[in-house]
Amino acid sequence: MVDMVKTHTGVSFGLTEEQKMLQKMARDFTTAEIIPVAADFDEHATFPEDIFHKARELGIVNMNIPAEYGGVGASPFEEVIVAEEMAYGCTGISTSVSTNALGDLPIILAGNEKQKAYWLGERLVDKGEFVSYCVTEAGAGSNVVGIQTRAEKKGGSYLINGSKIFITNASHAHFFTVFAKTNPDAGHRGMTAFIIDRNSPGVKVGKKFDKMGQRASDTAEIVFENVEIPEENRIGEEGQGFYLAMKVFDYSRPGVAAAAVGLQRRALEESVKYAKQREAFGTPIYQHQAIGHKIADMAINYEASRLLTWQAAWQVEMGIVNSKVPAYAKAFAADMATKAAIDAVQVFGGYGFMKEYPVEKLLRDVKIFQIYEGTSEIQRNIIVRELFK
Ligand SMILES: Cc1cc2nc3c(=O)[nH]c(=O)nc-3n(C[C@H](O)[C@H](O)[C@H](O)COP(=O)(O)OP(=O)(O)OC[C@H]3O[C@@H](n4cnc5c(N)ncnc54)[C@H](O)[C@@H]3O)c2cc1C
Q: CATH second-level architecture of 243-388?
């Protein structure tokens, strides 16, 4: 791990004393509450509701809700410190407990005072509810502009019709931030964001999906059938939804990258431990250069992913609006985490393929990092767009 290095340029790759304390708190929480149950929650696809509430009491979930609405008011940098620690324990559990910090972003970034006080303050902070972020549809994932969910203005309300797929925490969410078309002929200018209460008549949440990995996270479909919501549930102006969805990703991608970094650290530490103790041909396997080098690459990629993630979070904190660095961080950390998990299984040999060893789960859990919140291909499209504009 990089430790405190402060130079005369003012650049620091280290953590302040407060950040180190936060990191320790999240690490201790992960050790006590997440690691012991991770395998069982994975096997039974258990939603970690109790863990969420314990983490909430400690102030390590809902971290991005500003203090004026009763939240922790943490910085994006503090969020990535915590995300790495919890993901080290289990990325399924960490995804579940951190999804509010995605679902609430449209309100934080574009909501009005009344919306923030009610949905962030009363609903998320005081009542401890869950919110899901709903963009993806069966026919439109990467192509966000292709969504079909329709929001029609009817007097002082909107009528919502359509469906969303692969929505994290949908089975448990008390409300949803939903992107819909207010003007289907206006392309990306025809999209608007709304807050939809789960109890609204016409909201139906489907059965949760049975997944390959991150099984302690909940993923389900939501159908909106003539759901009538008041105009005051519109987030921002009509037509601003696409820009808002893209802005949300600039804020959320450092956190996803941080989770991939946490998984890399787990793969690295498990590999070091195993390669020291396992012998083949009369020597610990790390002394076979093919294995030692794999683990060295894991360490290099982990540190590099983490630095990019920190830079992306720092940039958000500094108010620098730029999709490029969050895309670098998300793409690199996801790709390197995938490589680390594959290589960790290789280091463990046949045992790596068995459920009783922790790296089998890492390999199943890791794949989604290259898919959700923009696939690795889409991150590269963003980078090309930014480089050539
Ligand atoms: C477990 C899980 C949780 C999720 N949680 C949420 C959530 O909470 N909220 C939400 O809104 N969504 C969520 N998603 C959806 C996720 O963001 C999408 O699955 C993802 O964006 C990809 O969309 P798609 O599945 O439709 O794939 P597609 O867009 O159909 O892509 C298929 C393949 O084609 C590639 N491709 C597509 N277009 C291009 C292009 N222009 N250039 C190069 N390659 C391209 C993709 O990279 C991919 O490899 C979740 C998905 C999963 C699996």
A: Up-down Bundle (1.20)
Encoded amino acid at 350, one letter: G
Q: How far is CA 308 from CA 267, 313, 344, 366, in A?
A: 19, 9, 22, 18
> Strand 219-230 to strand 203-208: parallel, antiparallel, or no bridges (unpaired)?
antiparallel
Strands 175-181 and 131-134 come out as: parallel
Q: Does domain 131-241 have CATH number 3.90.1150.10?
A: no
Beta carbon of 377 within 6 Å of any ligand 1 atom: yes
For range 14-19, the mean pLDDT: 94
* b/e map 197-228, b = 16+ CB within 10 Å: ebebeebebeebbebebbbbbbbbbbbbeebe
Q: What is the pTM of this model?
A: 0.96
- How many Å lie between the centroid of ligand 1 and the Cα of residue 232? 30
Ligand 1 center–CA 375 separation, angstroms? 6
pLDDT digits over 264-294, tens only?
A: 999 999 999 999 999 999 999 999 999 999 9
CA 114, CA 342: separation in Å to the nearest integer?
48
What local confidence, expressed as pLDDT, does residue 8 receive? 60
- Determine the Cα–Cα distance for residues 16 and 324; give it in Å rounded to an integer: 26
- Which H or E element spans position 140? none
User: What is the DSSP pairing of strand 175-181 with strand 191-197?
Assistant: antiparallel
Q: What is the pLDDT of residues 83-119, one digit of tens each?
A: 999 999 999 999 999 999 999 999 999 999 999 999 9
List the structure tokens of 3. 């430790």
CATH topology of domain 17-126: Butyryl-Coa Dehydrogenase, subunit A; domain 1 (1.10.540)
Q: Render pLDDT for 133-171 as a digit per residue (tens, 0 to 9).
A: 999 999 999 999 999 999 999 999 999 999 999 999 999
> Domains of the chain: which residue ranges?
17-126, 131-241, 243-388
| pLDDT reported for residue 2 | 43
Q: Which of 54, 199, 60, 227 is nearest to 123 (CA)?
A: 199
Q: Which residues are catalytic?
A: 373
Nearest CA to ligand 1 atom 44: 377
